[in-house]
Amino acid sequence: GSALLGYGEAAGEPALREAIVRHLALSRGIRCDARQIVITEGALEGVNLCSHLLSVAGDTAWVEEPGYPGAKSVFLKAGLRIKGMPVDSEGMCPDMDENLPPRLIFTSPSHQYPCGAVMSAGRRLALLEYARQHDAWIVEDDYDSEFKYTGKPIPSMQGIDGEEKVIYIGAFSKSFTPAIRISYMVLPQKLTDEYNKIKKYTNQTASKTEQIALAKYINNGKLDVHLRKARRIYLEKSNLMLSNIKKYFGTSVKIVFNET
């Protein structure tokens, strides 16, 4: 009807935000309500909003090195000082003895980009404790979390954060399609008021029509069906690749699985 033709809410369509709440509770163990969800056009818009909400020029941001160059670019444009943290088989290796604590910590614990490491549970807890002690905020980019074939799944950092120091960023670009440009943030309860102060100065850039269509797609269970099919197909491809590596390279190469 005519509701499709008007301007949407700055935080996104209520139907999609409610659908994402239910989806995250089942898939990532995240407990939140629709007021904490902010729809964005791509994950970088969410990172940009985080920089405006939580920092001022001159603050320090920790990023993974190597890591997502888009996030670094956003922080630099916001006037933040970038401090690269190395990555090993357990993900980001934060320097807990750093003399200048960060204001923001950007990390992709579920599937580190570009190295592929999965952050261990112990390191996640240590990073959450560090953020609590130093009044820092963790921006959790849950990149590619839908596809994991070895080891047990580890809950999102937001899901185990008891102090509400994590801003969770998710997207449908890898699990569904990047063409619709719909991503989202989950804000801690205590940040919703801060967001409400600035949302009147922001516009919703994701398509209203596509948001409503995606909400229907999630609510009728088709996204879950799609994800199960995609995981099966990608697992078959992964196994085929591994079998060919072993067949043609034999013992001359070592295959490393991130099972932390």
Short description:
The chain has 260 residues and is an alpha/beta fold. The protein contains 8 helices and 8 strands; from the N terminus they run αβαβαβββαβαββααα. Helix 1 crosses helix 7 and helix 2 packs parallel to helix 3.
Describe this structure in words.
With 260 residues, the protein is of the alpha/beta class. The chain is 38% helix and 15% strand. It has helices at 14-27, 43-54, 69-77, 121-134, 157-160, 192-198, 208-219, 222-249, and strands spanning 37-40, 60-65, 81-88, 91-92, 104-107, 137-141, 166-171, 183-186. An 8-stranded mixed sheet has the order 1-8-7-6-5-2-3-4, sandwiched between helices. The chain is globular, with a radius of gyration of 19 Å. The protein starts with 13 loop residues before the first helix and ends in an 11-residue tail after the last helix.
List the helices and strands and how they pair.
Layout: H1 14-27, E1 37-40, H2 43-54, E2 60-65, H3 69-77, E3 81-88, E4 91-92, E5 104-107, H4 121-134, E6 137-141, H5 157-160, E7 166-171, E8 183-186, H6 192-198, H7 208-219, H8 222-249
Parallel strand pairs: 2-3, 2-5, 5-6, 6-7
Antiparallel strand pairs: 1-8, 3-4, 7-8
Could you tell me the mean pLDDT? 90
- Helix percent reads 25-40%
Which sequence of SSEs, written as H and E, runs from N to C? HEHEHEEEHEHEEHHH
Q: Strands across the major sheet, in which order?
A: 1-8-7-6-5-2-3-4
Please state roughly what percent of the residues sit in beta strands, choosing from under 5%, 5-15%, 15-25%, 25-35%, 35-45% or over 45%: 15-25%
What is the CA-based Rg, rounded? 19 Å
Give the biggest beta sheet.
Answer: 8 strands, mixed
The outline comes out as globular
* Secondary structure category: alpha/beta
Total beta-strand segments:
8
Cα end-to-end separation: 49 Å
